[in-house]
Every structure is written in C-alpha cells, then in structure tokens.
Give the backbone structure.
Amino acid sequence: MKRINLSRLIKQYSMLTLATVIIVIGIYVFKFPNNFSFGGVTGIAVVLGHFMPFTPGTITLVINMALLAIGFIFLGKSFGFMTAYVSILMSLGLKLCEYIMPMNGPLTDEPVLELIFAIVLPSFSAAIYFNLGASGGGTDIVAMLLKKYTSLNIGTALFIVDMVIVIASCFAFDIKTGLFSLVGLLAKSLVVDGVIENINLCKYFTIICDNPEPICEYITNELGRSATVYKAEGVYAHKEKTVIITITKRFQAVELRNFIKDQEPGAFIAITNSSEIIGKGFRGMN
C-alpha cells in the first residue's frame, strides 16, 4: 500500500512540476514583457512593476510568500501542501528566469500571437492543477479565505478584483494594453474550462445488440474496461435485445466502434461525450 501511495505521490508532484514549468514560461515569456495585466497576482505584479523599482517576478514572489503565510495562519491544514508547493515553485521559477534569460521586451512583434500563448499556457496548467486537486496559489488563497470567513460570492469578488487590475493597466500603460488584458481576462476562463473538459473527456457507449458475448469479451480482455449488461425489448418488433453500457477513454472508443462494426454489424451504437466520470479507473479513484 505504501509503495502505491508513494508512486501516486511522485506522479502527482511530477505533473504539478511540469504544469508549473509551463505556467512560468507562459507568464515570463509572453505575459510580463507585453504588460498583459489579466489574472491574479501576476497581473497585480505587472501593474505595480510599472510604478515600483522592482521587477514583476520579484513582486510576484513577495506577494505569493505573504499570501502563503496568511494561508497557513488562517487556513491551517485545509490550505493544502500541493497549493503551497505550486505557489513557491512558480514564484521562484519566475525569479530564476530573470537571471538565466533576462527579457528587455516582447519575444516577437505580434502582440495578438503572444496574447494567445499568455492565455493558453497558464490555462493549460490551471486545468492540470484542477484535476490534481491543487491550485496556483495567489488569489486562490484569497478565495479560500473569503469562502471561510465571509458569505461573498467568491467568483464575483475575484472577477471584480481582476477587472480593477485590467482598468489600472489602462492608466499604467495605455488603452491598447488594457484592451489586450481585458480580452485575456475574458478568454482565460473559457480556455480553462475547455482544456479541463478535453483532458477528462471519455466516451459513453450504449450498445444494443443480439450477441453481446464477443463485445463484452473485447471490452474486458482487450480494452481492460468493464460493462453493464441488461435485457430489453424493442418497442416496434417486441424482440428481446441486450443492452451493453460501457465507458472508455477517448483513444479506445475508435477501437471498440470498429470491433462492433466488424463483429455485430446490425448493432445499434450510441456514443456520447462525458468529462465527468467518477469511479474506479477514472477520475477520483484508481
């Protein structure tokens, strides 16, 4: 049991580390040089960096460490070590990038292209954090505090804070930068939701057939999945049919569909998408 738990822990923190490297690249290479000011602590750091003699990386480090201390004081064990790990690693990663690859301006002369990367890379990482039950720290810590001590609508409160940061960027920089930041803020949540859905996407099969044995054997022996089987009666012809319900990963769906077409061409197959499958072999259990 300990070996299994250790293996799972190593896998989780390896994924967290990879996601954090991706988010650091997205923020440092594409967000900071263009002064994009959408989203959380790094957005605040971009604006404050314009008025203070410190880099956005330094400001992010200071704010995140302060929020971590507050989180441990007021939230205790419920704060979460994975969130602390991500927050520390991201803050140190941004600061390290300033030393190993200093940037004096944007990577390219295409701000729209850089905005896309500034949105997609952190959003992809945020989706990984969500799947692992972690967060990127920063304003997520503020959300945890609001949830515990107030009755405020957390989503609305954080969105208002982000909007204030975007408006501030208009005065700190220019209207063009502010509008880019606004687009980034609006697109970020959509991209995160889309990435989360695609990462978790599974295929739900409803198969109605006359000969279920070969199909069930293929599902269990070749795909390593299980299935539920029950008898049913067709309304039109009143013939007895067998209904098989199974759920597969996306890459297995084509294999199962092709097998059914070859072995049982008269079978009726309904395939639907689902990104919320909770149970053994899927999300939430192993």
Q: What stands out?
A: The longest strand covers residues 240-249. The chain has ten helices and six strands. The mean pLDDT is 84. Residues 205 and 271 are 5 Å apart (CA to CA).
